[in-house]
Design brief:
The chain is 59% helix and 13% strand. The chain is of the alpha+beta class.
């Protein structure tokens, strides 16, 4: 799949992942891959700068958790501002995808 198609929707997808549960980076990468049937294969070099930006904008918050047997993990959670952003971006995406579908299907017919 053309990577430019993913570029505009990556933040939306990450916010959507965090809507139901807090996650750490690698978990997000794996969950996105699983939910998309391996269509979205996000790289850490793409995800972490995006998470940093989302955190700066107040859409996500992070916390570090120390596990007994592993390195500390940074978990990300959706803030109230992130929930509002997700709702707005979902509406934008659905309108956009609907318009693309109409064009691909030959447009709206009046008759």
């Amino acid at each position: 799949m053309d990577k430019s198609l993913l570029a505009g929707s990556t933040a939306l997808l990450v916010l959507k992942l965090l809507e139901q549960e807090d996650m750490y980076g690698y978990q997000m990468i794996e969950e996105l891959r699983r939910r998309s049937d391996h269509t979205f294969d996000l790289k850490a070099g793409t995800l972490y700068p995006l998470l940093h930006t989302l955190e700066q904008k107040g859409f996500v918050a992070s916390r570090e958790e120390v596990m007994d047997t592993t390195r500390p993990r940074r978990y990300y959670s959706l803030t109230e501002g992130g929930r509002r952003q997700l709702s707005a971006k979902e509406a934008e995406w659905r309108a956009y995808a609907g318009a693309v579908a109409k064009v691909l299907d030959g447009g709206v017919c009046f008759g």
